[in-house]
Fold:
Amino acid sequence: MKTIRMSIIGLGGRGTWWLGELLKMEDVQITAVCDKHEDRMERGRRMCAEKYGHEVYGSTDWHDIVALDDGAEAVMITTYWNDHVKIAIAAMKRGKYAAFEVGPAQSIQQCWELVRTYEETGVPAMLMENCCYNREEMTVLNMVKKGLFGELLHCQGGYQHDLRAVADSFKDDHERAWHYLHRNAELYPTHELGPIMTYLDINYGNRLMSLNAMATKSRGLNKYLREKCDGHPMADADFRLGDIITTTIRCANGETIVLTHDTSSPRPYSRGGRVQGTTGIWMEDLHGLHIEGRTKGEVWEPMADYWEEFEHPLWKKSRATEYTGGHGGMDWLVMRAFLNAVRNRIQTPIDVYDSATMMAVAILSEESIAEGCATKSIPDFTDGMWMKREDGPKSIFSLHEVDETLFAGDVEF
Amino acid sequence: MKTIRMSIIGLGGRGTWWLGELLKMEDVQITAVCDKHEDRMERGRRMCAEKYGHEVYGSTDWHDIVALDDGAEAVMITTYWNDHVKIAIAAMKRGKYAAFEVGPAQSIQQCWELVRTYEETGVPAMLMENCCYNREEMTVLNMVKKGLFGELLHCQGGYQHDLRAVADSFKDDHERAWHYLHRNAELYPTHELGPIMTYLDINYGNRLMSLNAMATKSRGLNKYLREKCDGHPMADADFRLGDIITTTIRCANGETIVLTHDTSSPRPYSRGGRVQGTTGIWMEDLHGLHIEGRTKGEVWEPMADYWEEFEHPLWKKSRATEYTGGHGGMDWLVMRAFLNAVRNRIQTPIDVYDSATMMAVAILSEESIAEGCATKSIPDFTDGMWMKREDGPKSIFSLHEVDETLFAGDVEF
Structure:
């Protein structure tokens, strides 16, 4: 089994966690680590030294890491959102596969540059949307592909996550504070939009055509900071982000999507998934299904009754290993999918077109809100290729069959 | 107890059911019945004769009933949607309180005419939105007014009702067939929008500002008629109504609303209610609440745990009578509320401004869809009065206190 050499840039909480996971994988060799804060970078170097018994290169400047001629085939990017695409493009230009954590794009132009860089260099890049690999979403994907819902009509999802406690640590250089202070937008659409795009074959015979976005007033963060964080300097700050953002999207094939961003109010976590077609409906909040011809009466059936028949084969296999990893296993799956592509020098299962499409929704939602919920066209980053594109057997966006190679690694669990 | 004399126009299924209910009320005297179909009108007359032991007037022309000088103080209108406002206006001009069943307006102009007729005649009219009086919605209203959710941010609701079987009886003069064939719109918003307007004090210090609507493709009715109704003449008809319509509304005070119209797909019935504020959330599909300071942990609490403390006093009193009536009791409550207004010559709890606002959403959603999910302004039918309007103690739209007079009738259960 060939070892994959890769570097990692950005060692905050998420990056450091990823480094630990990558160090557990026997088929991965970390060649260099980077963070703009020297202490974090040095902590990363120590983690590598403990595992490998030798020093690895470290730098506080990501340009050094990307330029390094150390045989690295891939770079994992876990920096602030603002830098994801910039670093990915630099890595691709050096022939290195780029994986970057989820987050919004900063401009539509940036999305195009990501796409063009791939087309010019042939080097793939992947937005690491872990929820595409979550157990319930993948099982729903399997149901969709097996026709359980008939012809799809409508999907919903949300990033509904009470993150108010994070505000306690808000300061000038806190990423979420920047965005919440300055941007009124669907800032974080990919956790729900990623899986929905797989259900709807987006960029494979279908595409996102247009969106409209609407924001509530902003109340939650000021209320929390005033009441729970005595004397916090941002207690009276003018947070521009509405507490709840609703985005509606229309697809080329006539389906609609509703997304909800809801992070500043008290509530239990939910991605609020819903898939509805001509023969059935799934609702994540109920973990329930109603399938014509199967469900008896006008009731919901528990998802639990469907696992055995419909659990996605990747998950059946994954669970058999008794590995769970981060976020219930989906982090491990998304990384193994990326590494598989690197090893075999093939396209990543989420490619630059999918990544650009997902990331663009944040920008366009911001423009729509600024223009009074105006209808914004979503660019076709495939330049028309989506109409005649063959299903990519390696693409989770058109995953009809299990790709066993995703699990070919001799992985230490 | 003074008897209220009233007539009823439109004796299809719903009208005939209402006639039966009204005949049970000892403080109501039906003076005349009307349906354009003579057989239905005569059936209505027989129902009255059985109860009263004497004949009542009948006509197949609603103009006759409205013009009748029979001492009737009110008219109940249960005709096709297209005729609701037209007949209501004619009745108001004759000094008769008008109650009309739910349904969309046919033009914005018609909504204005309803409002102006009230302002010119002083005679109230009421859209009989029964869901405003449903047990769970009224209890949520009570929670809202008691501040359980804090400052409101976002509400959702839907008319999610698999009505495909109705298509079997579609023919040229079938009302739903007309609308489904010709209109791509949020045709039936009031069951969810009515209660939401009560939560948000719409037309009492707040108002609906603008909306955007988006439709899916149309599949369900053709599929159903082809597969389930052999040789049906409308099997290949071009139904313009999208299977699922999503409407987003922004309010003057910064809250947002999402409405869903979903009647042509297999699914369990749900109005999909959701109310979210700075301190809590209610979800109807879960019959669950999460209230900061009450709920322990990041979980949903069952609504059942809140009934005792928060059930709306009107419902506590109503249930004590062990009366259930139509649709779980809400039909009875909405009618008693209307009759109370007639008896006391006061404003109806849902007035012409509220009725026009609710009905206008259908028209504007149609325009929005036709214009590519364009932003449509919602008229202020109060001509600015909403800003300084006092809470109407008789209005369910600003119901802080129980109005005991709603239950003053010596009613036979």
Observations:
- The longest helix of chain B spans residues 352-370.
- The radius of gyration of chain B is 21 Å.
